[in-house]
Design brief:
Mean pLDDT: 95
Structural class: mainly beta
Distance between the termini: 40 Å
Radius of gyration: 13 Å
Largest sheet: 7 strands, mixed
């Protein structure tokens, strides 16, 4: 059984920074991709950033230049550094692993950007 555990969400003022991490436990092999998605109230879940094949990185246009995704396959962990946060970044953030020919999701962590 694979489980993803996220940490690092919270409340931050506009312009501030937060770091998220997501560690996968269980029998993980053949990681195809790791990533972060988010869902704001009343909106659909959307892609934030992904790493595919260990090297191909993709960002949503709305976070380019502000967010940085990184991964550590040896630790089965993916990170998201979020800088210059804006109120519109407020959402529940979910990590995602494509591994073992399946898709796994974390439980979600709340990020709130407000003064």
């Amino acid at each position: 059984q694979v489980q993803l555990v996220e940490s690092g969400g919270g409340l931050v003022q506009p312009g501030g920074s937060l770091s998220l991490s997501c560690a996968a436990s269980g029998s993980i092999f053949s990681i195809k991709a790791m990533g972060w998605y988010r869902q704001a109230p009343g909106k659909e879940r959307e892609l934030v950033a992904t790493i595919s094949g260990g090297r191909t990185i993709n960002y949503a246009d709305s976070v380019k230049g502000r967010f940085t995704i990184s991964g550590d396959n040896a630790k089965n962990t993916v990170y998201l550094q979020m800088n210059s946060l804006k109120p519109e970044d407020t959402a529940v953030y979910y990590c995602n692993f494509e591994a073992n020919w399946s898709t796994y999701w974390g439980q979600g962590t709340q990020v709130t950007v407000s003064s």
